[in-house]
Write a structure and sequence with these properties.
- By secondary structure, this protein is an all-alpha fold.
- It has 5 helices and no strands.
- Helix 1 crosses helix 2, helix 2 packs parallel to helix 5 and helix 4 packs antiparallel against helix 5.
């Protein structure tokens, strides 16, 4: 029961962390391109890579990987922002928003995994 309470608390903390980072980046960068979501997803991919590289398992992985980072990162917002760029007649930005996070996210996860392997 305690683990599931921790899942709820960490899930809430991850969601709040996402909102704070996204807002801070977006406020400074403007809204021409969804850099806030990119920053959130890249940092989350890196952190999850660290956890995987460090060999975290069991309840620790459930809490850190699924609860905290699962609620911190956001696939749905990434897709919604890409769709909106397309709707707004910005196909180049739409395709950039689809490709850039995908490839840089994979690189961030790989780098995180390498760092985690050193721990």
């Amino acid at each position: 029961m305690l683990v599931w309470i921790a899942v709820a608390v960490l899930g809430g903390a991850g969601a709040v962390g996402r909102l704070v980072l996204d807002a801070a980046v977006s406020e400074r960068a403007g809204d021409a391109f969804p850099l806030g979501t990119l920053a959130v997803n890249l940092s989350g991919a890196f952190a999850l890579g660290v956890l995987a590289g460090a060999g975290l398992a069991g309840d620790a992985l459930l809490l850190a990987g699924t609860a905290l980072l699962g609620s911190y990162t956001t696939f749905s917002t990434w897709m919604l922002e890409s769709h909106r760029l397309g709707e707004d007649g910005e196909p180049a930005r739409m395709w950039l928003n689809l490709a850039l996070p995908l490839f840089t996210g994979l690189a961030a996860a790989a780098l995180g995994r390498a760092v985690g392997g050193l721990l």
